Amino acid sequence: MGALSTLLYSCDNTTTEPTLQVKDPVPDQYQLINDDHSRLDIYHQVELTADLSHLSANQKAMLSILIEASEIMDELFWKQAFYQPKEQFLSQISDTKVTDFIRINYGPWDRLDGDKILLSHIQEKSPGRRVLS
Fold first, then answer.
1. Structure-derived torsion over alpha carbons of residues 72, 115, 42, 46, reported in degrees to the nearest 10
2. 51 has a pLDDT exceeding 90
3. Contact 95, 32 (CB under 8 A)
């Protein structure tokens, strides 16, 4: 009976989120490592435009739904790539260019530069998270 209760106890359905890879659990503010702002200019914002006049009202409504779905997917991808609540994490970064770069990279690693660490108080990206790159 003891083995059965141990087995049942170990099969608890509750899950815990992986711990955040942070060197200092409560930093005052994250800072760009080496104060290297040159990487922050590699992305450029562009305005996407399209002529939607040929679409029906239903097709335009569908586009709105697809945009809403993409916003949900974006949030889910952030959670998969970096288990820190996005807005809470980003609020700890004072430089808006750094915040934008982190937002684009879905976390504090530079995806186009071998997942190098961008911010102080952050550890290297774990190998299990590389599949999302």
1. -10
2. yes
3. yes
| Mean local confidence (pLDDT), 51-65 | 97
Distance CA 64, CA 132 (A): 26
Predicted TM-score of the model (pTM) = 0.69
Instruction: Count other Cβ atoms within 10 Å, centred on residue 131.
Output: 7
Report the distance separating Cα 87 and Cα 47, nearest Å: 24
DSSP one-letter code for 46: -
* Rounded CA separation 37/97 (Å): 9
Structure tokens, 91: 């609020």
List the structure tokens of 33. Answer: 């490592």
